[in-house]
Amino acid sequence: MIIGVLALQGAFREHMKCLKKIGIHGKLVKSNKDLEGIDGIILPGGESTAMGKLLVDFNMKENLSNKIKNGLPAWGTCAGMILLAKKIDGENKAHLGVMDIDVKRNAYGRQLGSFSTEKIIPEISDEPIELVFIRAPYINSVNNGVDILCEVDGNIVAAKQRNILVTSFHPELTENRAFHRYFVKMIKNNKSV
Amino acid sequence: MSKRYELNKNLAEMLKGGVIMDVMNPEQARIAEAAGACAVMALERIPADIRAKGGVSRASDPKMIKEIQAAVSIPVMAKVRIGHFVEAQILEALEIDYIDESEVLTPADNVYHIDKSKFKVPFVCGAKNLGEALRRIREGASMIRTKGEPGTGDVVEAVTHMRRMNEEIRYIKSLTDEQLMTAAKDMGAPYELVKYVNEHGKLPVVNFAAGGIATPADAALMMQLGCDGVFVGSGIFKSGNPKKRAEAIVKAVTHYNDPKVLAEVSEDLGEAMVGISVSDINANNRMADRGW
């Protein structure tokens, strides 16, 4: 199994390290060519405006969007979640636009609003998981069979729709690998269908 | 280490592989954001103008910073003078995303840098070598950048500082346990951070390049030398076509290892900033020598 990690900007190296730790081969994705032969893709944290622009500039937007629509498992953390959303609060354009969620950027304000907390997310693990929010977005609302996996203070911060997983927070910045294992499981289930 | 410090280090992680651009007004900030900047640095005068105009250079007007914060959704950074902790308190009150305690402004203290651990907002500081980087980190900086020589468009000092940092990291990594205290004493750096570098072979925080980067090739050069991202100060808005140059530098940082892409994005960018050769600048006008 090879998992691609979108490497246009942001914290892609952290995801690569996590994959290595659970024995999965990770591949940096910077072009359409790199999108070939991957079994799933992680869209990392960073700046969604920068990554969104580079997806267009390097002609990857439509290709990646189609692949995800056709079933390629995808997981977006923070900025990655914004790239996947069909609707971004206050903006009239989406990036990849593949998931039925309406997200709010910088929902907790500026860096002084960044925080971390702990939570048990039954779908992912029985153990509490550290959730790190860095100038994070959250989900205002969901549509069409999106499963809500986790809420913090009444705001949706993790969700899943078929082959797409999104988290407002950054499991790659913690020592807990439960989310990465869960994504690997999603890919395995996807293959057996 | 505090939770807040971890969160601040992690914001720097998110900026990696990106370009932080100096902007002087909301319009430039919007151009930078649209070009794919991962953050902007709000300042009244970019380093090239500070050099030309002379005089005392201070932190920017809060009004101007607030206008830039309102104009863009990406992180907004701003500079304070070395040692000027009240300018830093003011920026914290504005909820700035990152403070740059910067040698570009006229130093306010010839002896002490700001005790950055007292602040909730993160700090980035310049460094010419490993010892300086580790001193700033111990004071609470959660991100480091090379000093380079700001406002020149001459990349030579950024290269020198990055190479020196890399060499010193390799040297520290090669040492045995009993050598570490002597090394810490020699470079004037805190022992526990020297030990960290010995164990991990890298700085404990993100390290960007800054000071003299003017072209996509300059940016890619710094990335190939091992930095995590780049600051471009005067290089963009002192050039003939800021929008095109900004976009090109962003693409060059993503594909820093792909000469074909670098050739494409370097094409037809219009005039680069005129620049001054660092060797033509008198020692007492060198910004990199401010701070210690």
UniProtKB/TrEMBL annotation, chain A:
A GO term for molecular function: glutaminase activity
PROSITE patterns noted in UniProt: GATASE_TYPE_1, PDXT_SNO_1, PDXT_SNO_2
Sections of the chain in a coiled coil: none
GO CC terms in record: cytosol; glutaminase complex
Keyword Hydrolase: yes
Pathway(s) annotated for this protein in UniProt: Cofactor biosynthesis; pyridoxal 5'-phosphate biosynthesis
Domain of life: Bacteria
Function field: Catalyzes the hydrolysis of glutamine to glutamate and ammonia as part of the biosynthesis of pyridoxal 5'-phosphate. The resulting ammonia molecule is channeled to the active site of PdxS.
Similarity section: Belongs to the glutaminase PdxT/SNO family.
Complexes and interactors: In the presence of PdxS, forms a dodecamer of heterodimers. Only shows activity in the heterodimer.
Name of this protein: Pyridoxal 5'-phosphate synthase subunit PdxT
Species the sequence originates in: Paramaledivibacter caminithermalis (strain DSM 15212 / CIP 107654 / DViRD3) (Clostridium caminithermale)
TrEMBL record, chain B:
Top-level taxonomic group: Bacteria
Record family assignment: Belongs to the PdxS/SNZ family.
Residue numbers binding D-ribose 5-phosphate: D22, G151, G212, G233, S234
Source species taxonomy: Bacteria, Bacillati, Bacillota, Clostridia, Peptostreptococcales
Biological function: Catalyzes the formation of pyridoxal 5'-phosphate from ribose 5-phosphate (RBP), glyceraldehyde 3-phosphate (G3P) and ammonia. The ammonia is provided by the PdxT subunit. Can also use ribulose 5-phosphate and dihydroxyacetone phosphate as substrates, resulting from enzyme-catalyzed isomerization of RBP and G3P, respectively.
EC number: 4.3.3.6
Catalytic activity: aldehydo-D-ribose 5-phosphate + D-glyceraldehyde 3-phosphate + L-glutamine = pyridoxal 5'-phosphate + L-glutamate + phosphate + 3 H2O + H(+)
Gene source species: Paramaledivibacter caminithermalis (strain DSM 15212 / CIP 107654 / DViRD3) (Clostridium caminithermale)
Enzyme active site: K79
Enzyme class (EC, first level): lyase
Record domain PdxS/SNZ N-terminal: where: 6-210
Listed name of the protein: Pyridoxal 5'-phosphate synthase subunit PdxS
Keywords, sorted A to Z: Lyase, Pyridoxal phosphate, Schiff base
MF GO annotations: pyridoxal 5'-phosphate synthase (glutamine hydrolysing) activity
Involved pathway(s): Cofactor biosynthesis; pyridoxal 5'-phosphate biosynthesis
Single GO BP term: pyridoxine biosynthetic process
Subunit structure and binding partners: Homohexamer and homododecamer. In the presence of PdxT, forms a dodecamer of heterodimers.
Entry binding sites for D-glyceraldehyde 3-phosphate: R163
Pfam family, one: SOR_SNZ
